[in-house]
Design a protein that fits this description.
Chain lengths: ~110, ~110
């Protein structure tokens, strides 16, 4: 079993829909990252969080440390949100090393 | 401000050849990370530096891989000799400090024939 599990693996939505991507992990962590990888391959860091909730534009990330679970929400989704979303955790015992989930492929249709 | 710069963007080489990938971190960032991404294994950390010093190289697959950071504005990842299984996208990322948000470069797509 992977230390970081994402669901769903693939997600197709219609423009305007509210989207949720989930990340569960099985180890103690000091931080969790959400990354976005565009079809062209570039990776952008969306959030780094260790507790609570963060919001940036239409994106919201939440984390529940006790339940070892994080969610990434996209409100009013748009075709330009189509990308792979990757969850990564920094384990308490591994310094700055990140452990990555397998990613969620999101497609938003117009 | 320029982001993380990587070169080359694409590299095609033959098995057995030496390959050198280059990275310029964001100015003022003290930590630099090298990652590899493949379809089979996803993203993997190879090595990271803090203040030009290698901190953790446990992700370097074997002795054919080496990385250096001679100064705060430049790092190289070298593969010698290269093998077809090294074909992947190699990303460099930098952060202000070890535990800060990481900013990724555009990646180098390496194909070893």
């Amino acid at each position: 079993k992977n230390e970081v599990e994402q669901s769903p693996q693939n997600l197709t939505a219609q423009e305007g829909e509210f989207i949720t991507i989930n990340c569960s992990y099985s180890v103690g962590i000091s931080a969790l990252h959400w990354l976005q990888q565009h079809p062209g391959g570039g990776i952008v860091s969306l959030f780094m969080l260790s507790s609570g909730k963060k919001k940036h534009g239409r994106l919201i990330a939440t984390i529940n440390i006790q339940e070892k679970h994080s969610s990434l929400h996209i409100t009013a989704s748009h075709p330009r949100d189509s990308a792979v979303y990757i969850c990564a955790v920094r384990r308490e015992t591994s310094g700055s090393r990140l452990t990555f989930g397998e990613g969620t492929q999101l497609t938003v249709n117009p | 401000d320029a982001g993380v710069i990587q070169s080359p963007r694409h590299e095609v080489t033959e098995m057995g050849q030496e390959v050198t990938l280059r990275c310029k971190p964001i100015s003022g960032h003290n930590s630099l990370f090298w990652y590899r991404q493949t379809m089979m294994r996803g993203l993997e950390l190879l090595i990271y530096f803090n203040n030009n010093v290698p901190i953790d190289d446990s992700g370097m697959p074997e002795d054919r891989f080496s990385a250096k950071m001679p100064n705060a504005s430049f790092s190289t990842l070298k593969i010698q000799p290269s093998e077809p299984r090294d074909s992947a996208v190699y990303f460099c990322a930098s952060s202000l400090a070890l535990y800060n948000e990481q900013f990724f470069g555009p990646g180098t797509r390496l194909t070893v024939l």
